Amino acid sequence: MIRLITAWVLIGALSGCASSEVQSAGALVTADGVTRSSPSGISSSSFLAVDRAGGQLAGPAGMGGGDFEPVENVSLLKKAAFAEVMLDVQERQRVFHDASDQVELNGNFSQGGLVVGRTVPGADVRLDGAPVMVGDAGEFVIGFGRDSAETALLVVNLPDGHVVRRSLEIAGREFRVERIDNLAQSKVSGFSKAQLDHIAVDREKKKTARTITQAGADWREGFDWPLRGRISGVFGSQRILNGEPKRPHSGLDIAAPRGTPIRAPAPGIVRLAETGMYFEGGLVLLDHGHWLESAFLHMSQIDVTPGQRVEKGDIIGKVGATGRATGPHLHWSVKWTGELLDPFLLLPEETAPQSAN
Hints:
Blueprint: E1 6-10, H1 11-15, E2 28-29, E3 34-36, E4 47-51, E5 57-58, H2 74-79, H3 82-85, H4 89-96, E6 103-107, E7 114-119, E8 124-127, E9 130-132, E10 139-143, E11 151-157, E12 163-169, E13 177-180, H5 193-209, E14 212-214, E15 230-233, E16 238-241, E17 244-245, E18 252-255, E19 261-263, E20 268-277, E21 281-289, E22 292-299, E23 301-302, E24 309-310, E25 315-318, E26 329-336, E27 339-341
């Protein structure tokens, strides 16, 4: 006898169904062209039932299947996870595949990847239930962190009331892990009170700088190398020191002589230009729009100021070894809505690093 496993999913939180079922303060675009963050909440009473063994569906109108039946065990609803329910590729595509030409997606569908999208102006876009900023021409961008799940759900509510749902396959990657044992514990963990105070002040500076983003989509111009040199560190690699896992490497390290000019890889607005940061040393945060940001670390000189607009190729400072750095190099990291992405995946395909450790 085949055992049927039925999982119930709260669609309001995962797929952002009809606009009448979604309540969100979202992001506010002000008259100065800046988007400021504001809290959002999503609520819905819609559910989807998926019989993983028999393939029978029951849910709200437009989702396929027959009549909707009440949940008998509320704990199933609470415990059901989107990634678990959607593991079966055929089932997922049958439920959510939508070939509508009103949504276009191009980019790198992998952990650390960035995807550029376009839809109808005025559409509401959500990735796994979270609102995505959409430009006046319908352009938007989404990204997937180092440890992203293997699936994601993109839902686009069009102005005419139609809803486009796309199930996205996110390719996994293998990241280098290095184990180092028998180190002095003082080199592995622990900060003095003065150091912790310094780190806390720095954290607030970065947090404040990241409360706004520009409405312009400067990322549309693409990215180029901020400088050329030997690749001394790659995105996602991780060290385990004395059995204690450390944070994965957050970006791309490019070794170069001290004083080498650093250029903006894409246009943007400077949100932070600060020297003396504990970890980062000389730090510049560059807002490319729609919550996509580049960070440049360990700079010996900073040639830009907060609020300044820079174009692709403009010099923003010089290479150094400030902060926690063992030698002169540029650490370049990229974030989208707090998710760290792989800068190398943003670069033209014909370019390649000289070496990668």
